[in-house]
Amino acid sequence: MVGVFLPLEHLIDPYTSPSAIIIGTGTRFGSSSAQMKSFVDSLGQLWMENALEGKIGSVFAGSATQHGGNETTLWSLISALFHLGLIVVGVPSSCKEMMGVGELSGGSPYGATYISGGDGSRKVSDNEKAIARFQGKHVAEAAKKQKLGASLL
After folding, report:
1. Beta pairing class for 56-63 and 87-88
2. Range 27-46 burial, b when 16+ CB lie within 10 A, else e
3. What is the number of alpha carbons within 13 Å of residue 46 lying toward its C-beta?
4. What is the DSSP letter of 108?
5. How far apart are CA 67 and CA 110, in angstroms?
């Protein structure tokens, strides 16, 4: 999974501000990494200014094991997105890769997830990549619809 990291000022500049924000983190005992917590904590000024209100937001996470806390990590991030005023988009059940039970795979209605193995040796599976791609496309479509709807007001 690849991310683009923007300086915080780009999140509020009307010329560079994205229509959607997807954030992700490694899972640490069922919660976000310290680095992600620090990033979220740094958004207080944007919260005070309602700068992200109405934007599309989504999350993804990864853990070492199948039951390593991915969903609780996603929810901790989702909670922050709600506080910031974002419209949260997950992965709907129309993503067929979420419905399979034939292999060990991450994936959740709350966001894409992956399982790395305790030593980091497990690569992100094709199924997990497909879920992440689906989520990215779904977020982009939601942002496009939201922007179109806002232009009609």
Report:
1. parallel
2. bbeebbeeebbebbeebeeb
3. 25
4. B
5. 15
User: Where residue 147 falls among pLDDT bands split at 50, 70, 90?
Assistant: confident
pTM passes above 0.90: no
Listed in sequence order, the residues at least 6 apart from 65 whose beta carbon sits closer than 8 Å to its beta carbon are 115, 117, 118
Q: Tell me the one-letter amino acid at 150.
A: A
Helix (H, G, I), strand (E, B) or coil at 79: helix
The sign of the dihedral angle between the CA atoms of 144, 74, 83, 9 is negative
Given a contact cutoff of 8 angstroms between Cβ atoms, the answer to whether 21 and 73 are in contact is: no
- pLDDT at residue 15 is higher than 90: no
Nearest to 20 by CA among 34, 39, 4, 42: 4
115 three-state secondary structure: strand
CA nearest neighbour of 67 among 30, 93, 31: 30
Per-residue pLDDT, 17: 77
Q: Is residue 101 helix, strand or coil?
A: coil
Alpha helices in the chain (DSSP H): 34-41, 44-48, 70-83, 126-151
